[in-house]
Amino acid sequence: MRKPKKLLNHPDAVAREQFEGFMAAANHLEPVGSHTAAIRKDFRSGKVAIVTGGGAGHEPMYGGYVGEGLADAVVVGDVFAAPAPDAIIETCLALNPDKGVIFVYGNYAGDNMNFDIAAELLEDDDVRSHTVRINDDVISAPQSNSVERRGIAGALYVLKVAGAAAEVYQEFDDVVAATEKALKHTASVGVALGPCAIPRNDTFNFEIADDEIEIGMGLHGEPGVGKSKLITADETVSQLMDKLYDELGLCTGDEVCVLVNNLGASTQMELLIANRAINNYLGDKGISVYDCLVGNYCTSLEMSGYSISLFKLDEQLKHLYDASCYSFALRK
Question: Is 58 a known active-site residue?
Fold first, then answer.
């Protein structure tokens, strides 16, 4: 039976060592204490702070989106594990956030618990906070129970809007409203072709046959709608796009941004073929594509497959999306 193979040092040191490598490449950030956490060097008082985070293993999410016009700080946990509350608290306080903090992170039980604990304790230091849990994965729960949905690559759009709004708007509630609006206008769905493995494990997180795919599988191997036989790229994209089209209630004349996100091991060729099919699908529906991002934006170690995210624009969201930004993984 095939076993995972990664070029590492010690498996228990992966989260720390990848963070140190990230910091060596991100000279616009500074570390927070001994934590795998960082803040912007140029963060200024008098603006609402955007703080993000989650488990390692999804690089460049989340640290890759910390910088001018994006998040102001990140807190990273172990591989596929939530960051600790004390690390979140210390990171927030390092910003001296006099206008309050907006937490933006994926909707997973461990992250929810630890960020909520941190938010409660920050109240003792008179730090105002609001939480936006990314729940863009339309397969993971029905629309009627969207609060239970998982967060995947659509987090990129929410962080982009949140960061831009925090630069433009002075009022806490205005930044919250823009961030929440961005989340409501974002929908994602993925397809997996092959599994991933946590570095300390010698087996894969799940099994999938060579002639199978799974629509809607989560970033950690959570089940989707079930395995099916491998079909063509165009057929696969059509299935995914039908779900996103219905979810966002798209119609002729709408304008969207498209994100084709590599889950880790798919080729640029596959992503571009998917992007071709996505643009053809939207063109046939009379929907304009304002911008396309194709590449590694929210990965899952060596999982093979990709996710598609659509971001439905209006004038406010387009303005915030177009605002300049500078980070390790996204620059405009």
Answer: yes
